[in-house]
Amino acid sequence: MNKFIFTAIFLFLSSGVQAMVQGKEVTYSNNGETLKGYLAYDDAIKGKRPGVLVVHEWWGHNEYARKRARMLAELGYTALALDMYGDGKQAHHPDEAGKFAGEVAKNLPLAKARFDAALEFLRRQVSVDPGNIAALGYCFGGSVALQMARLGEDLKVVASYHGGLATQTPAQPGMVKAKVISFTGEDDPMIPPEQVAAFREEMEKAEVSYKTVVFPGAKHSFTNPAAHNSADGPDYFRDAFPYSLPPMVQFERSPVPLEPADSIWITDTTFRDGQQSRAPYSVGQIVHLYELLHRLGGPQGMIRQSEFFLYTKKDREAVERCLVLGLAFPQVTGWIRATMADYQLVRDAGLKETGILTSISDYHIFKKLGSTREKVIAGYLEVVDAALADGVIPRCHIEDSTRADFHHVVLPFVQQLMERGKQTGIQGKVRYPDTMGVGVSDPHAALPRGIPRLTHMLRHEAGVPSEALEYHGQNDLNAIIPNAVAAWLYGASSNNGTLLGIGERSGNTPIEALVFWLIGLTGETHGIDTTVITEIADYYREIGETIDQRLPFVGSNFNVTRAGIHADGMIKDEEIYNPFDTGRLLNRPPGVAITDKSGAAGLLMWMQDHRPDVSAGVGKRDHASCDSSTWSCASMMAAASPASRTRKSRAWWTRCSHPRASHKGARGPGRAPSPNSR
Hints:
By secondary structure, the protein is of the alpha/beta class. The chain folds into 3 domains: about 20-225, Rossmann fold; about 265-540, Aldolase class I (TIM Barrel, Alpha-Beta Barrel), CATH 3.20.20.70; about 560-665, no CATH class. Helices cover about 35% and strands about 15% of the residues. The strands form 3 sheets. An 8-stranded mixed beta sheet has the order 1-2-4-3-5-6-7-8. Strand 10 (about 305-310), helix 8 (about 315-325) and strand 11 (about 330-335) form a beta-alpha-beta unit. Helix 7 packs parallel to helix 8. It is elongated and about 95 Å long. About 45% of the residues are buried.
């Protein structure tokens, strides 16, 4: 399948809107070595403008450097986030970052050559004034920028943010062409006051135009909210999650790009997460619901997988009976904790894929598991390796990903998972659960809460293919559908849900809703049989499940009107108040419930539905219906729901059951219409 049909519509509509910042990956070279950068500019600005080189932290050319380039572009510059490691290489552990940074620091000619290659590339851009270029850097990048100034690079300004100030090759008088400014933190252990003082002395001796700024109380990497050293302890993102207040939404200045996957589908966790908030299903109930999921998803398997607990004898029997059915879809998968004992259950069941709980936020690592980041990741990978050795696909559930440190925990773990897949030829999968339902669907929303940004980062920073990326939502903040749709829009192929949304606390993403959104986004039915949704709801009622009457698609009030003004519209054309053909797609024609708010239109609609022999040719202002020898409004009252039989409505029905009194009281000559008539 091609990209979603809305993509073309979006592009068409956006062609005439005001220009905005453009960002693109670029490739340039240094003596045959490939370097990968990111160029950002505002195409609404005409003519040449100043250029800025952005030098990355010791982690390498990552999203943070790109973000800074986009921010500079918003201010009117053309910015290039350059590559000091070669081939866009990134580090995912402090030891690795130290190694990469050390290799550059010890080879000054190589560092200068890579910097010069970026400088020349930026100068060649049509939007750049080649004689008006600055450079800035962060941490390692700040040190690099200062070193290039010391070497006499033709730059107007050089700025260092929490970059090291010490050097083996101090500036010499007359060499430094740029104005220099450094920003450091007073409490930065990597840049003590003695180093700041020595830097000032160096600049003075070399007769450099410079300035130093020391921020009181600031630590290292103070410009990067995502920066964190696990040695400092857990990061609970208190700016976003103050706990004594509702979770706070934080935004980036630039959005992530809309990037739907080539194909999308649904996965099911009814028999795992869905069983955590209700009485356990019987084996027979599981098998029947599994068959209904198969019918709902259709022959193309748009409900691709269903996951099962494996802990009890009943769970394992349900798995066996579903496997015996031999259905291609949904594929039966397991769910386990990341322990070798749990993994043995997968082996015993003979499953080809299993979910593995890999809790990833510091809330879980430090508070729940009482461990450290390094230890838990090592334990997770042990189970992953065992699965890969058996040819079993591991689907790691990075629990609480919307409260997790992406750059220092999520990223290194997921990248190791992807690397193991390359080595073994077995593609591991990533499910990113919004465990507390705190996700935000806006593309500007910052990490850790932004679902579009998290999806984008997992795709492009962690290297997870769309088809291996699965979103799992919770409904604690009532944002479950926008977040699930956002996951599809920004790159995940798979969305995980449960039947009727039954799940932990406020529930999971309802599969019946995902079905309709999938069809709407792709413009195809894919063989999905939406009428099965009503069968599923009826079966749940049969087994004793109470379904909220206002629940979309399955609740008793879903397409039932009580307002006379709505009924009047429905009589004229049901499309006025019915969003789609619920009769054809759900085997649920629109209906009316009679209350004191129904008015004459509501009565007529009820009669048309229940007594077409009486209602034929009758209008809402025609009272002949009440004189019918075979019909009275009292019979309507008898059929109305008990909840609707208020004192007021009972009195009204009493009048309506006596034609003369009703006609005189409701619409008699010289009287205003009844307030209930609409």
